[in-house]
Design a protein that fits this description.
CATH architecture of one domain: Alpha-Beta Complex
Shape: globular
Mean pLDDT: 88
Number of strands: 24
Strand order of the largest sheet: 16-18-17-22-19
CATH topology of one domain: Adenine-n6-DNA-methyltransferase TaqI, Chain A, domain 2
Radius of gyration: 25 Å
CATH superfamily of one domain: DNA methylase specificity domains
């Protein structure tokens, strides 16, 4: 990336560059909650911090790691393994924190080099390519050293320009994050309702306890549904091959209730990252937040997923799900499913709640977990068409909003990724950008 600004060595404008450390005792001292978070490579994504798998340590362990403590505005860079070069800003809501040895702390001199600007520069495609290139040179395992990081050359515009560039890009990221959080909230609401109706059978239990219309009204209010919907549920359970289920409900299978398409990879070199054609997804590694990134195409489409089909990974690991935002070709690592009611939300939630079953294929010691077509289609699920119809009327608008938000996320990401190199190189004047 050519720049109109002079380049400087990153190390000359940082007060700290260095990796963290693992507490003595390793995972045996990790806590689910605590005063001090421990950031690991799995938490560091490109321009995003993930709280998945976040662990904590006690004050005694934190005290021993005080030399690798995290400060607000630090930049975190993964320096080893398959996740090398992933980089993000420190999330202040998880402080105080420490980092392990797979993550480097980059602490800039803020009056000279803005940390957000540095974060965006390290996230640029050219810098990502460079880091991946040098980390794999002559080593058995990808690694970035302290010296490598210190010698990174970075354009250094005036500090006010750096701040404006960071502000423009962070404004777009803030909008992306807002949509993501809205989607998480909507999905959580739909998930809670699904669990209440189809897993815990709360309305059935409520009906069994209600002895009068007044009690029925109160029970419906407590469940957040109408009395009319509550009355659609039975008031007792019966024995079935799936255990005790609501009276009148049926045990069915994925094959009977879903349209199922198993993926098949195109032959030879019929797909790559440059040619035009239909979007192709090989497996769960292509998944984005709610939809895969548009990077790989094929001119030989075979097995197709339709728009709004649920994409299910059927190979290593089994059970990850996503939504096909448009018609696409799917490889053998995926299947595409859609409930015959054509409800996006119900399809998504049924498959997500089968994750406990799919996890059986991902147990430790499994060489290559996979589930075949016959096994997938034979999975047992419950059905009551009237209840499902009512459920869909409630959750379908939620998933329509999730999809709209996801489309907007993709648009914002494209805008950000287009602006980023132009702003960092000085090709685009910050005063010309309107958001």
């Amino acid at each position: 990336m050519k720049s109109k600004w002079d380049g400087v060595k990153l190390g000359d404008y940082c007060s700290k560059i260095g990796s963290g450390s693992t507490p003595r005792g390793g995972s045996s001292v990790y806590l689910e909650t605590g005063e001090y978070a421990l950031f690991r490579s799995q938490n560091i994504l490109n321009n995003t911090f993930s709280s998945n798998g976040l662990v904590y340590i006690d004050s005694e362990a934190a005290k021993k790691l005080k030399n690798v403590s995290i400060e607000e505005d630090d930049v975190l860079l993964n320096i080893t393994g398959d996740s090398v070069a992933r980089v993000c800003k420190v999330p202040s809501q998880y402080l105080p924190a420490r980092v392990n040895q797979h993550v480097a702390i980059i602490r800039t001199k803020q009056n000279e080099l803005n940390s957000s600007y540095v974060n965006y520069y390290l996230n640029s495609q050219s810098m990502q390519n460079y880091m991946l290139s040098i980390s794999s040179a002559g080593a058995t395992r990808n690694a970035l050293t302290k010296v490598m990081i210190e010698n990174f050359e970075i354009p250094k515009p005036p500090i006010e320009i750096q701040k404006k560039i960071a502000h423009i890009l962070s404004t777009l990221d803030d909008k992306i994050e807002l949509n993501r959080k809205m989607n998480e909230t909507l999905e959580a609401m739909a998930q809670a309702l699904f669990k209440s109706w189809f897993v815990d059978f709360d309305p059935v239990h409520a009906r069994a306890k209600a002895d009068s219309d007044a009690e029925l009204e109160l029970a419906a209010k407590e469940l957040g549904i109408s009395k009319e919907i509550l009355e659609l549920f039975p008031s007792e359970f019966v024995e079935s091959e799936m255990g005790m289920i609501p009276s009148g409900w049926e045990v069915s299978t994925i094959e009977d209730e879903f349209n199922v398409t198993m993926g098949q990879s195109p032959s030879g070199k019929s797909y790559n990252e440059t040619q035009n054609g239909m979007i192709f997804f090989q497996g769960r590694r292509d998944f984005g937040t709610y939809f895969p990134s548009e990077r790989v195409y094929t001119t030989e489409p075979k097995r197709l997923a339709k728009e709004d089909d649920i994409l299910l990974s059927v190979r290593a690991p089994v059970g990850d799900i996503n939504i096909a935002m448009k018609e696409c070709c799917i490889g053998r690592g995926l299947s595409a499913l859609k409930h015959k009611s054509d409800s996006l939300g119900y399809s998504y939630l049924v498959l997500k709640n089968l994750r406990v079953y799919f996890d059986g294929y991902n147990t430790e010691g499994t060489v290559f977990g996979s589930v075949n077509q016959n096994t997938l289609k034979s999975l047992k699920i419950l059905k009551d068409e009237q209840i499902i119809q009512k459920f869909n009327k409630i959750v379908d608008p939620m998933f329509k909003q999730i999809k709209n938000n996801s489309v907007e996320i993709l648009s914002l990401q494209k805008t950000r990724d287009t602006l980023l190199p132009k702003l960092l190189s000085g090709e685009l004047d910050v005063s010309e950008v309107e958001l």
